[in-house]
Amino acid sequence: MTKTLSPPPAGTRILMSGNEAVARAIWDSGARVASAYPGTPSTEILEYISLYSDIYAEWSVNEKVSLEVAIGASLTGARAFCAMKHVGLNVASDALMTLTLTGVVGGLVIAVADDVGFSSSQNEQDSRYWGRFAHLPIFEPSDSQEAYVMTKAAFALSERFAAPVILRMTARICHVKCVVDIGERETHRVAEGFVKDPARWVMVPGNAKHRVPKMLARDRSLREASENSPFNIIENSNDRRVGFIASGAAYMHVREAYPNAPILKLGFSCPPPIAMIRRFSKQVDTLVVVEETEPLIETEIRAIGIAVHGKDLLPANGELSATVLRPALAPLSPSAAISQNTIEPQTVFPRPPTMCAACPHLGIYYTLSQMRNTNISGDIGCYTLGAGQPWNALDTCISMGASMGVALGMDKARGADDENKKIVAVIGDSTFMHMGMQGLLDIIYNRGNVTILLLDNRAVGMTGGQNNPGNGRDIHGNAAPRIDFAKLVEAFGVDPERIHVVNSYELPVLFKTLREETKKTGVSVIITNQPCVLISDYVKQTPYEVEESLCTGCGNCVDVGCPAIHVIRREKAVKPSGKEVELSFVEIETVACTGCNLCVQTCAPKAIRHVVSMLQNEPVTIS
Amino acid sequence: MSKSAINILIVGIGGQGVMTASEILSQVAFAEGYDVKKTEVTGMSQRGGIVSSHLRVGERVYSPEITQGEVDVLVGFEAAEALRWAHYLRPQGVAMVNRLRIEPPIVSLGLFDYPQDPIGDIRKQGIAIRDFDAGAIARELGDLRLVNTIMLGAISESLPFKPETLRENIVARFRAKKPEQADLNAVAFDQGRTEAKRTAV
Prior knowledge:
CATH superfamily of chain B: Pyruvate-ferredoxin oxidoreductase, PFOR, domain III
Oligomer: heterodimer
Strand content of chain A: 15-25%
Number of domains of chain A: 4
CATH topology of the largest domain in chain A: Rossmann fold
Strand content of chain B: 15-25%
Radius of gyration of chain A: 28 Å
Number of strands of chain B: 6
CATH architecture of chain B: 3-Layer(aba) Sandwich
Helix content of chain A: 25-40%
Structural class of chain A: alpha/beta
Number of helices of chain B: 8
Shape of chain A: globular
Distance between the termini of chain B: 32 Å
CATH superfamily of the largest domain in chain A: Thiamin diphosphate (ThDP)-binding fold, Pyr/PP domains
CATH architecture of the largest domain in chain A: 3-Layer(aba) Sandwich
Largest sheet of chain A: 7 strands, mixed
CATH topology of chain B: Pyruvate-ferredoxin Oxidoreductase, domain 3
Number of domains of chain B: 1
Largest interface: A-B, 59 and 59 residues
Number of strands of chain A: 22
Radius of gyration of chain B: 16 Å
Strand order of the largest sheet of chain B: 2-3-1-4-5-6
Number of helices of chain A: 20
């Protein structure tokens, strides 16, 4: 089952994504332990690392645990690494804020990938603040080559200052493929093992307060290192009218938009090289800071009394690009060419992400969409899509695991409109194990009235179906201990009679269970148990088709929300009551249909049936 | 060595092979000695959403994103998606578009309309568009998955390297992984190439 890699030798020049380059650098730095919880855009880093057979790699249950695993490894003297998306560092921050006091032994690098531009996140944030907040150095690569070189340098810096180093990436670094020159591999020494030193590792007040001055002294040394870092460089030019300070992906956008402008490129951006910035500011007439997404450097420059442009002209959020920079900075830079685009953008319908054909969540949201008088507290995963069309059956989404606490709060506060409302919380298996379990315990302990739908699809679905304790496979696909959700929630204190395990494709059972449980007071947990269609556990069935002569155009199947069902014809009809209704006649896209049977259950005239020719070739499997 | 630069924007929806096409082109350009940057919007958009892949090839490439109005070749795997991105083209750029129409659930639900004639809408803007039914060619050749190779064949004469170089790379890929499909893909590539010539404006 375990996949491995034959890594290309040092001296090879290849195309790599930023995530792939970081993974290779982790291997080339002789790291011993690497951990992560999947999260866009950082997920692939650990996937790639897991292919190197001599690194211990794991999917942790959440980012805080992942960082703690890396800390433990570092304490033994081994080099350690963990990766996370921006919101993951919020979760891990409790450990981070004390780690900055203890410091590290073996080099420890934390890659944090900001989803600038909202490709798949609940917020947008600039993780560089965590570096400032925790007094830790930050490297900001601007392409895969730099991601590779900086990751290696981050281990050296981490050991030189006995401090973790944050490698701050963004989506346009993680997922961009470009040319990388592979360097030499450093086989790290075998760690000496954990050396007991309570004054350093036991952070009780009496010990911790003595670490603070050391951290502050380290700040001063880091400033010096930043001034002399090869990652902070001034690229001069004869045109001195407008000079730019830029880091990360923004540097590339500035170079693209203004190929001949002087630039101070910051790769070691925290703490910033103040003397260097002063020097650069004297070389140019006007100074502009270009950074994604918050004005961190800009604020520091203003604080030392240097006049600078930045967010006064540039957007305060979202991705930058030459397309954005040129018009925004036109008042300063009349020489920069704005492309003479004569083609008008056209308005085209949106194409929001949909659930997959046969997704086990479809039936659950179809059922929830039929429930009246219900507040549905949601969570983070593919099933957040239940908030969209056609279901409109998810009312909140805040943070990993929040469905639990939010549901309890709604139950306890009950406004005038909520007096008789049912409260349902929807959470996926990974999110439940990540940060939802504690919330459920809180609901039970505090005697809440909430029906919990635990959607166990045995994978971290949204990020590509990574393994987790719910499917009993580790990061390599090898057998691992598997959680028993029913037993777990029973141990938490849920009445065994209020725990139901339901097949996600059996609509009548889903509907009946949900209706009955929401009528009762107290806590019930309904666990749905069918696998994500994107993972190996899913077994395709014979596809269906629509017998056109039997389809009455009622549109019930369309309400399931399966992307394999297409409306081919619309008609208006008048009911005996005189009411005008719109009819939707459908077809099923056979190549996309995997025979889940959900739409069949909504079709009263029985117009949906197996594709007969395929039935003969492919026996129906009943799971 | 002077290398001519080119910006290629490949668009479609999740699962259509946009990223594979872009990956193949990037590897060939790289092997030909170009600097290459390739970037995609991924994440939630994999779930039936819009997928766009920017591929920039040249002597030295900075930003991975193509500036609006600077696309040389727009490759549309789906008609409405080509329309959505058409304004990224340079006025003298070329659009190579598969006529396939994929209606999302929100169109099925009657909430939005699919444009009547997206190809015509692109042409109306004065864009040099070459459109053809790659799906029909693929079906004729017996495998819908050939659309990808047909599209690559279609743009092969608009690239800064020889069409044969791209063709050889694709065939070699199949020889290595699915040898039984190597010849068929060569045919698909040639048909795409012919189709592009036939529809040249």
